[in-house]
C-alpha cells in the first residue's frame, strides 16, 4: 500500500522552508518596503513599454496566476501543479525530496533522457538501469525484479527520448498497480502523440507523478518552465524545498500570454506532425538510411550507415543534428529534430548530396 510518509527523507520532514518577504503577508499592497528591492525601478524601466513592470520587484514565489491558467488548460487543479525552472529542476527536486544519498535508488530505462541519471549522480543516489526491450518498450519483469526496499522512484519517458516511441499504457499501469514508490512519467513530447496524458490517472494513483513542459509544443524553451502534476501532498513537499523565486517574472508573464494561444499551438502541432511524416518519407529513400523508428515526438531516430561521417558533413554545412550512435541500443543512429519546412528542405538537400 502506498504511504507517502515512508518515502520522504527524514531531514525534509523536519525542514522549515525559507519564508520570503512575499510569503509573510496576505492581500493586496501598493507600497513594498519588505524585500530590499530597488524602489526607484530598474535599468530596464525606460526600455520597456509604458505600464510594463521594470522587473525591480521579486516575482510571485507561488506563480499563482500562471498555475490558475495552466489549471484551465490542463484540466488539473492548481494545487496539483508544481512549476520548475525547466523539467530538470523538477527531476532534481523530486530526487532531493525522496531519495536518501548513498542509500536509496531510482530505476531508469535506457536509452532515455539523460538528466534522470545526471541528477542522481549529483545527489549521490544509486541508479538501477533496466534497458528497454523489443521496439523500445518496457521490460516490466526486469523492473519488477530490480525493485527493492530502497527504490524510491521509477522514471519513465513517454514518448521516449531519444527513441521517439510512446510506452505501452498497460505496462505502465502494471507498474503503478504493483509498486508503491513514485512512478514519474515524463511527457515532454505528449502533444505530438495520439496517446492520452497519464495526468488523467492522477486521482486513481497517489504514487503517480506526471511531468510536462512548455519547451516543446508551446515553443517556449528559452523561458524554462517545467510542469509537474501530482497529488497535493507530493506537490507540497516539492514546494517546501524549491528555491523561493525559481520562476522569474518575465517567464511568468510570457507564459501567461502564450497560454491564451491554445489554437495556435494546436496548429503548430499539426504542422510539425505533418512535417515529421514528410521528412520520414523523404529520408527512407536515401541509400545510407537503414531504418527510421516510429515517432510520437517532434524528432526522428534514424539508423544510418556511417552516422558519424554524415553528422560531420552536415555540420560543415551548418546543420546540427544529434549524434546518438554511441548510446546503447541506438548504435548507428542520428536523432533529427523536425524543423521548419525550409529547414527540412535544406537538410534533405544536403543529405541528397551525400547520397
List the helices and strands and how they pair.
Layout: H1 4-7, H2 10-14, H3 64-74, E1 81-85, H4 87-98, E2 105-108, H5 115-122, E3 126-129, H6 140-146, E4 151-157, H7 169-178, E5 182-186, E6 208-213, E7 225-229, H8 232-241, H9 249-258, H10 262-283, E8 289-292, E9 299-304, H11 307-316, E10 322-323, E11 333-337, H12 341-354
Parallel strand pairs: 2-3, 2-4, 4-5, 5-6
Antiparallel strand pairs: 1-7, 6-7, 8-9, 9-11, 10-11
Offer a quick outline of the entry:
This protein has 355 residues and is an alpha/beta fold. It has helices at residues 4-7, 10-14, 64-74, 87-98, 115-122, 140-146, 169-178, 232-241, 249-258, 262-283, 307-316, 341-354; strands at residues 81-85, 105-108, 126-129, 151-157, 182-186, 208-213, 225-229, 289-292, 299-304, 322-323, 333-337.
